[in-house]
Amino acid sequence: MTILTELHQDHINLDKLLVLLRSKVGQLRAGHHPNFNLIGDVVSYIAGYADGFHHPREDKIYAYFKGRDTELDPLLENCEKEHNDLKQSSSQLQDAIDGILHDAVIPMNEFADLLDDYVSRQTLHLNLEEGDIFPKLEAIAEEKDWSYLAQQLPKPDDPLFGEKQAVEFTDLYKELIIDMNAA
Q1: Range from 29-33, 91-95, 172-176 carrying the lowest mean pLDDT
Q2: Distance between CA 88 and CA 155 in Å, rounded?
Q3: 3-state secondary structure the chain
Q4: 68 φ, ψ to 5°?
Q5: What is the CATH architecture of 3-182?
Q6: 164 pLDDT above the threshold of 90
């Protein structure tokens, strides 16, 4: 398994969470109050794992390949900027969820818009990497590149989709299983 395959699997896992969040946007727009603790768990996971480990790992890979392809370089620079923007977006959404959980008055339509924007931005970002960046990396990279990067950037344990789920994500994991079985 190459490091790019691991990143692709992370994207598949993140997409599952974004689908779950998109359904919560639908509930909010329909006037229902979803489980805000669960939404908070999803955003906490994305902030902790994706923003804390996955994106920095990608940034190091992108830095390694910079200068090898003139079409790829602007995409990599844009992607690194998106990583920073997404981290700020996660923090902003976490603050809003914390406010709701601590009885702050936040209009639900504003929260739905914030959540919807978050999901859309995350989805566009995944599409950029999967549709544009990863294929270009595969085209220019050699096996020795992937071997070197795998040694330099070991895969961190995934607290939700890894072999052992972190206690803090037990409810989220159960919800995902229920959601997948219902589909």
Answers
A1: 172-176
A2: 23
A3: CCHHHHHHHHHHHHHHHHHHHHHHHHHHHCCCCCCHHHHHHHHHHHHHHHHHHHHHHHHHHHHHHCCCCCCHHHHHHHHHHHHHHHHHHHHHHHHHHHHHHCCCCCCHHHHHHHHHHHHHHHHHHHHHHHHHHHHHHHHHCCHHHHHHHHHHCCCCCCCCCCCCCCHHHHHHHHHHHHHHHHC
A4: -95, -20
A5: Up-down Bundle (1.20)
A6: no
pLDDT digits (tens, 9 = 90+) for 5-23: 999 999 999 999 999 999 9
**Tokens read off for 54:** 């996955």
Query: pTM value?
Result: 0.90
